[in-house]
Specification:
Elements: E1 2-3, E2 15-17, E3 20-25, E4 28-33, H1 43-61, H2 64-76, E5 79-80, E6 86-87, H3 91-104, E7 126-130, E8 133-137, E9 146-156, E10 168-174, E11 180-183, E12 188-198, E13 208-214
Antiparallel strand pairs: 1-4, 2-3, 3-4, 5-6, 7-8, 8-11, 9-10, 9-12, 12-13
């Protein structure tokens, strides 16, 4: 892995170009040979591919008005990318993501986007490690139809700052009930992320990063 300055003629670069992958690690821009992951065809991978196919098929069945509403919603709700820049998803991509999120947490799939923006982030979350577990305390959500979702990477060294892309979803539960507890974790230092999900529209809040030591 090499350290680079102004990679690929830019101020910062994240992602792959040709055979080179650029990343930002510990505040420095790095470049390494691009790796091509194996395709094991795990049950989770197969399920995700099936859901994506179902989402694309569901988009095709939407009315012209439904699709236009998703385009308008996507244009009005740009998101932050990994470099901190705003990006605007297409209506199709916004719908597919909402469909997959709703399917993953076991709620009905949306036809129309919500009449409001994404849900607010989790309020005042605090991660406390315990014996093989973490407890995420937060300010309980006042309304209905909201799920809190927990992602994590660990155990890892204290000096490491893992990327969200390496995280796995660990648990989820109603945002009206605090704390959210995840058991069965290996001992060591962990990084967690939490977010709120609107169960009706599948829209997600921004993620909040937390750390804790599991004993």
């Amino acid at each position: 892995m090499a350290l680079v300055k102004e990679p690929a003629g830019s101020y910062q670069a994240v992602g792959s170009v040709g055979r080179t992958t650029f990343a930002i690690q510990k505040g420095a821009c790095t470049a390494r040979r691009r790796s091509y992951p194996s395709n094991p065809g795990s049950s989770r991978q197969t399920a995700v591919r099936s859901t994506l196919a179902s989402a694309a098929a569901a988009w095709a069945l939407l009315t012209t008005g439904n699709r236009a509403n998703w385009e308008v919603y996507a244009a009005a709700n740009p998101e932050m990318d990994r470099l901190g820049n705003l990006r605007t998803l297409s209506g199709f991509n916004m719908f597919v993501r909402a469909y997959c999120v709703c399917d993953d947490i076991g709620f009905g799939n949306p036809d129309d986007p919500p009449a409001f923006g994404p849900p607010v982030p989790v309020v005042a979350p605090v991660a406390t490690g315990g014996a093989g577990q973490v407890s995420i305390a937060f300010t309980a959500h006042g309304g209905l139809d909201t799920t809190i979702e927990l992602w994590g990477v660990g155990p890892h060294s204290v000096g490491r700052t893992p990327l969200l892309a390496a995280a796995k979803r660990l648990s989820y539960g109603p945002a009206q009930t605090t704390p959210l507890v995840k058991t069965g974790l290996a001992a060591g230092f962990w990084t967690f992320w939490v977010r709120n999900i609107d169960e009706v529209s599948g829209q997600t809040s921004t993620l909040t990063r937390l750390t804790a030591t599991v004993t």
